[in-house]
Amino acid sequence: MKHPTHTTFAIIAIASAAIPAHANQAPGLVDQYRPAANRIINAVRAGNGAYDKLEQLCDGVGHRLSGSPQLDQAIDWAVQTMRADGHENVRKEHAMVPRWVRGRESLLMTEPRAMDLAMLGLGGSVGTPPEGLTAEVIVVRDEKELASLGRRVSGKIVLFNNIMPAYDPREGSGYGSAVKYRLAGAAFAARHGAVACLVRSVTATSLRSPHTGAMSYEHAERKVPAAAVATEDAAMIARMIARGQRVVVTLKMEARSEGEASSANVVAELRGRERSDEIVVISGHLDSWDVGQGAHDDGSGCVMAMEALTAIRRLGLTPRRTIRVVLWTNEENGVAGARQYVKDHAAELPLHAAAIEADSGGFRPTGFSFQFDDKRREAIAQRQLEEIASLLAPLGATQMRAGGSGADVGRMRPAGVPLLGLNVDGSRYFDYHHSQADTLDKVNPTDLTESTAAMAVMAYVLADMPGRLGQPE
Fold this sequence. Notes:
This protein is α/β, with parallel strands linked by helices.
C-alpha cells in the first residue's frame, strides 16, 4: 500500500473544509419539506373549496344534533362530497349515539314584573311538568356559596351567576373555569333541595344570546331541569335580588332523552405509497348543537380536514403513510363516535402515526398543541414540531405547545397515539359557541383558507417524514 503524502493530506483537508458540517447527516425536516410545504400553501391560497363546502353544510343542512335527521343528512352529504373529490375508501362507520330532544321551552319572570327571559335548555337535561315549574330564584356565584345557604335553597330555582372572564391574549379564554357550572350545576343544586338550575351562559360577550351545551347529572339522586340564560338576564336578576327584590320565574321545558339512535363517523383516505398501513388522522366533528348552524363548532374543522386532503391529492403528493379524514359523530354530547372508532380500530391504533383534530373554530391559525403520555417522546416531538413550525411561518402558525389536542382524538391517548390540535386565534370563539349566532357569516374565508393550509402541511409532513413523530431520528 502506498502511503499518502503531505500534499495528499492537504488536498483532503481543503476538500473537507468545502463541505458543510451537516452534509453527511440526513437533511432536516425543513430542508426536506420546504418545497412541498410552499406548494401546498400556495395552492390552497390560490383556490380551495373549504368555504363552499361550509356553505353547503351550514345553509344546506343547518344544525346537526346527534340522532337528528339533519345529522343523517350531513353524513350523507360528507360521503357524497368526498367521493366526488376522488378520495379512496370513503365510507360510513356505524356508531350508536344518544338522542336528546329539546322540545319547546320558555322562561318567564313573573315577579317583580312580567318579562320573557332569553334561555336555552342544556343538552341532556330532563324536562319540567307540562305546566312548568314556578319558584323563587336564589343567586349564587359557586358551589361554596350555594352550600353556605343550607336549607334556604330547598324549593328554589338556583341561578349560578358565575362570570366568565374576558379573553386574555396570554391566558386565553376563561371557559375552563366557567363551564363547570354548566356541566355540574344541576347536580350541585339538586343536592341542596333546589327544584331547577339556571346558569349564566358561558361567554364573555353577548347580545342577549344564550349559549347551550352539555350538562351531566353525575351520580345525582335527583334530576332537576337545567337551562342557560343570557348573561344580561342573569346579571339583571342578580341586581334585583341584591336590591332586596323577590324574583320569581316559571320555567317550561319539554326536554327529553329518547335512548340511542344510529349514526356514523365518515372516513376517507389518501393511501400512502410505502407504509399505507400507517395512518395520520385529520379530523373535525360533524355534529353540532341544535341552534345556529354549527359553522365554527365544528363545520369549519370538518371542511378544513376535507379540503386539506383534497389539496394534497390534487398536487399529486402521495406521502409514505396514509392520511385519513375522520368526521366524528356525537362529539357534543357523548363522544360516542370517537369511542366507537377506538373500539373498531383497536388492532391498528399502534399504527396510527398521529391524530389531529380541529375544533376551535374557523379562525386564523396560530400553531398546534400536542399530547403524549410518554414524556420522552413528547420532548422529541417538540423538537421535531419546532422544525415543522418554520414551514408554517407564511401562515403565522408557528406556535407549538405541549398539552391539549381534541375531545375526539383524545380517546386514542391510552393507545399511545401522538395527538395534535390545530390552534387558532381564540379571541372571538366563545362569542358564538353553542349559540344561535354560530352561523356561516361569522367565518372569514381567508382565515378558513389559512387554517386549511396549516392542516394540510402538518398532515403531509407527518405522513411523509422518514420516522414517526416522537421517535428518535
